[in-house]
Amino acid sequence: MATIAVKDLEKVFPGAESATIKNANLNIKDKEFIVLVGPSGCGKSTLLRMIAGLEEISDGELQINGERMNELSPKDRDIAMVFQNYALYPHMTVFDNMAFGLKLRKTPKDEIKQKVEHAAKVLGITHLLDRRPKDMSGGQRQRVAIGRSIVRNPKVFLFDEPLSNLDAKLRVQMRAEIKKLHRQLDATIVYVTHDQIEAMTMGDRIVVLKDGIVQQFDTPMNLFNNPQNKFVAGFIGSPSMNFLPGKVIQKEEATFKSKSLEFAIPKDLRPGLKPYIGKEVFFGFRPEYIYDKQFEKSKRLSENMEIVVDSVEPIGSETFVYFHFIGNPEHSFCFRSDSQFSYGIGSEICIGVDIERLRFFDKETEKRIM
Amino acid sequence: MKFKSRKKEQLFWGYLFLAFPLLLLSIFVFFPIGFAFVVSFYDWNLLIPDKPFVGLGNYFELFKDPVFIKAIKNTIIYTIGVVPVQTLLSLFLAFIMNQKIRGRAFFRTAFYIPAITSSVVTSIIFVWIYSKPGLLNYGLNALGVDSNIDWLTNPVTVLPSIMILNVWTTSGYFMVSFLAGLQNIPASLYEAAKIDGANQWQQFWKITVPMVRPVTYFVVIMSLIGCFQVFDQIFIMSSGGPDNASTTMSYFVYQNSFKYFRFGFGAASAAVLALLIFATTLIQKKYFPPDVY
Amino acid sequence: MKHVFLIPFCTLLLLSCTKQADYVRFTSWQSSPTEERIIRQTLTDFEKEHPDVAYQFQPIPGNYPEKIQLMLGTGKAPDLFWLKGDTAPAYMDFEVLEPLDPFVSIDQNFDEADFFPVFRDAFRHKGKNYGYAKDFNAYVLFYNKKLFAEAGLIGPPKNWEELYDFSKRLTKDTDGDGKNDQFGFVIEPSIDIALPFALQNGGELVAEDGTVRVGEPEFIEALNFFMSLYRDGVSTIPADQGAAWMGDVFSREQCAMTISGSWLIPYLRDNSPDLEYGVSELPQGKKRGTLAFTVAMVIPKQSNHKKEAWTMLSYLAGKEGMKTWTNSGIALPTRKSVALSNGFYEDSVLNTFMQSVEYAKLYKINMKERWYDESQAAMQGIFYKNKDIEKTLKELGKTLEKYTLD
User: Dihedral, CA atoms, B233, B235, B239, B242, nearest 10 degrees?
Assistant: First the structure.
């Protein structure tokens, strides 16, 4: 059993002007695969290292299985960590690298042999046991690093951007392997990445961080469909959500008005937006939920929006279309069309957004209104 | 100038730039070494015009000379005693310097100052420290250890006393070399070791020491060469005594060449010393190579 | 392109051609500013007397023996230089010095007979005279009058028994800590301090004819007595007191007696001006014996100004030069006439030195240089390793036989 509880955790580096991690609160369940994601400098690695015991906790409490971990050194927390640069001991063979932790705990020799060989088999590196790190590829080295963690059978596995140094194809392959490993190991994993696609594909739940503050802790689908603020909305999803700043005004009905676009707010959303009449908001709409009014008849779409096509990127299965609203050529947006898209650059189209996918964010707090 | 090919042109300029330093080296290093070697086969007295060729005569006489045998013995004892202690101590110091402890700047200075102070000055200071009413006896007595000898005139303690002085003097210099090597060890290695369960002591032996091996190789070789050639301290502190207890090979070379006028004999003993140093470094290279990871 | 290198090269070549010096180059070592001042004063007097001789005085500040050796070996030796008595045998044997007899025979004023007998032939080797002693010093006994009075002793010891007995009575624990801090005597485990005792016992290190006699019973017996002074605790050694030399121990009043030369006098004047001391000849054994040290002026064979150099030498080691030189008290005269005219016999302290001259033996060992280090090693073995005296001296004798001059 390995639950992790982060309570009001705070980290201030000595001499720093502000906290690197502010008031983090997370409850990680046993055997969950949690991903910490966010842009550079958001504090995700720091948070991970605080769980590992490599960074001191300035305030708050860290609990693993209900026990307070703040004062314990890494080796007493029963955790294992896989580093971005693998951190393999260059002067030892793969076998010795993996056996190192066990040797330090005075595990008997045959037990070490058995554990190392088993982990090597799981990872497919049995043929590398006698090699030195410098004689292996990046992917092999990463496997060894993972193997080193596995042999000790810890309660919690921590991964610090382990795939960042690999090429794209290998990364995709390793992602699947790590997911598979999670099922095999049946352990709690905390995984840090800056790649939101990686986060979405791997995590059971994802922690989105920005500037040291937890923005949202939720399942991938919830983050996608119900982002709690503009940052999460824009971070998750590729290509990212389109944003248009504007105002809610009262015409015959509540209307969203921006420089280049004006449309009546759908009936269902009017009650929610009533308090915002006269206020500034962001209108968010995902590329996936924009439809050519000419062709899309099945969904309930918003009012007509007139656009001009700027560029077209057919990628085979889909086409990415970049456009701007008539009257405002500076502001570019994106929508994903099917492969039948045949309009050329400069064409004027009428589009609409799936009503259920309209999102509005408070301009000041950036929190989601609808 | 016209050249047949670009490659020849590059070669020409390369050799031209090398020519001047090579000339200097040849005149002031290679030629004297070679000449000294030639002199060792003669009975060469600077003041007597007659310098007969004696072949290996000087070498035979060397190995029958009890003072030379003693010098070899002393030099080997000195080297075996100093090199490991010096290497370990400077690595250990560098490791401590690399951590963020208080008083770091003081320790760094305290250990580096002797390295850059003239060896003559430190020798003279230590003659006083090692004397009967000197600081060492004073300190030992204050700690309750009864100590009342002149460390430099006691045949048993004279060589160890000079050895300790040398360890203290040069450790600072090698500490700086090790510090540079330590900075090259990625912090993540220590972190991985910490997670694996290593304490400070284990981290030192299982991460630091192996990773710093190329520097260790350099330090050991420099230390070996320096030990084989130790002269200043012997000259000032003990003049090789008492009863040749601290006569080293380089001191023997000096005595025979400049005090006894026997340049040929002195050159022969210098040649033996050079061969000894050369053989030792070859052995080290073969059996304890740096092995960069 | 090649011309660019030619010009500086030729210039360098021209500059390196040194011109022949057209004056006498005179050199000495530098032991004190006082000494240098007196040298220059003597030279000024020389100039007045011989304005026709051009010279240049270039003292060597350090490593004198090594430098002279190198200068001789590379053909750049000065025309006139000082040579210590104990290194002289080697130089004379190598025949790098010019024999001076031809110059003496035509120089009317030199008066070789004026020299004390022991110094007249000090630098004679295989029948030729290579240098003249410009001054001398000798070992005498210095004693602390106040400490003697406290112990109820009036005069200095006259023989070995008295030396031992007085030393015993003068050794005491003055501060009540159970350890003696005042000793009767101080000695040094050094061959030149032991040698007077050997001489007084009828022994010697090496005989005139080259026989090594250090292993003979007279020397062994003398060294036994010498060592007993230290072993029995009535004498100390400088190392035990943290002092650099015996004179230092005496000056600090940590011992009541010491053997030294006249160089102790200015040292005491500077460091312990209130110390009342007396000087006497060394206590005798079976006979009287002491060592005399001297420095010669020599001219190298390779000199191109031998005649002018001789003129200088003749003056500096002559009656006039020696008078000026020794008048300062810095050293003692090797000429009887100078000793008389400068009043050396009248002064009670200096007279002791002059009396010693009658029986002193020159500190000049006709062996290859290495004899000194081998002898010192033997002494150190006896003092610091408690080696058996008879065995060690006999071994030393065998070793020294290898270093006789041939």
Answer: 20
- What ipTM does the predicted assembly reach? 0.83
How far is it, in rounded angstroms, from Cα C258 to Cα C274?
17
pLDDT the model gives residue B1: 64
The total of structural domains in chain B comes to 1
On whether residue B257 sits in a domain, the answer given is yes
CB contacts, 8 Å: A101 with chain B = 195-197
Model pLDDT for residues A45-85, shown as the tens digit of each residue: 999 999 999 999 999 999 999 999 999 999 899 999 999 98
CA dihedral C64, C67, C72, C77 (to 10 degrees): -80
A103-149 pLDDT tens trace:
998 989 999 999 999 999 989 999 999 999 998 998 899 999 999 99
Q: Does B146 reside within a domain?
A: yes
Q: Are B204 and B95 in contact (CB under 8 A)?
A: yes
Residues of chain C contacting residue B19, judged by C-beta atoms under 8 Å apart: none
* Ordered domains of chain C (ranges, CATH): 9-138+292-362 (3.40.190.10), 140-289+367-403 (3.40.190.10)
pTM greater than 0.80 (yes/no): no
- Digit-coded pLDDT (tens) for B174-196: 998 898 999 889 999 999 999 99
3-class DSSP state of C135: strand
Contacts of A113 (CB under 8 A, 6+ apart): none
CA dist C240 to A155, A350, C142, C187, Å?
70, 110, 20, 11
Does B53 map to a domain?
no
pLDDT band at C3 (very low <50, low <70, confident <90, very high): low
Residues 335-374 of C with CB under 8 A from B: 368-370, 373-374
- Residue C8's pLDDT is 61
Reading the block at residue A246, the tokens are 């504007």
Q: Which of B190, B195, B208, B291 to mutate to test the interface with A (most CBs of A within 10 A)?
A: B195
Whether the link from the prior residue into A239 is cis, omega within 30° of 0, is: yes
Q: Where are the alpha helices (DSSP H) in C107-173?
A: 117-120, 145-150, 160-170
Chains that touch A (3 or more CB pairs under 8 A): B
Residue A218 tokens, joined: 């939720």
pLDDT band at A357 (very low <50, low <70, confident <90, very high): confident
Residue pair B98/B179 in contact by the 8 Å Cβ criterion: yes
CB-based contact C363:B255 (threshold 8 Å) = no
CA distance B284 to chain A (A): 19
Please name the residues in contact with B63: beta carbons below 8 A apart, sequence gap of 6 or more: B69
Q: Is residue B18 part of a domain?
A: no
Nearest residue in chain B measured CA to CA from A135: B293
Q: What is the three-state SS of chain A?
A: CCCEEEEEEEECCCCCCCCCEEEEEEEECCCCEEEEECCCCCCHHHHHHHHHCCCCCCEEEEEECCEECCCCCHHHCCEEEECCCCCCCCCCCHHHHHHHHHHHCCCCHHHHHHHHHHHHHHHCCHHHCCCCHHHCCHHHHHHHHHHHHHHCCCCEEEEECCCCCCCHHHHHHHHHHHHHHHHHHCCEEEEEECCHHHHHHHCCEEEEEECCEEEEEECHHHHHHCCCEHHHHHHCCCCCCEEEEEEEEECCCEEEECCCCEEECCHHHHHHHHHHCCCEEEEEECHHHEEECCCCCCCCECCCEEEEEEEEEECCCEEEEEEEECCCCCCCEEEEEECCCCCCCCCEEEEEEEHHHCEEEECCCCEECC
Q: Which residues of A touch B (CB under 8 A)?
A: 52-54, 73-75, 79-81, 83, 85, 87-91, 100-101, 104-105, 132-134, 148, 152
How far does the CA of residue B289 sit from the closest CA of chain A (Å)?
A: 14
CATH number for the domain that contains residue B264:
1.10.3720.10
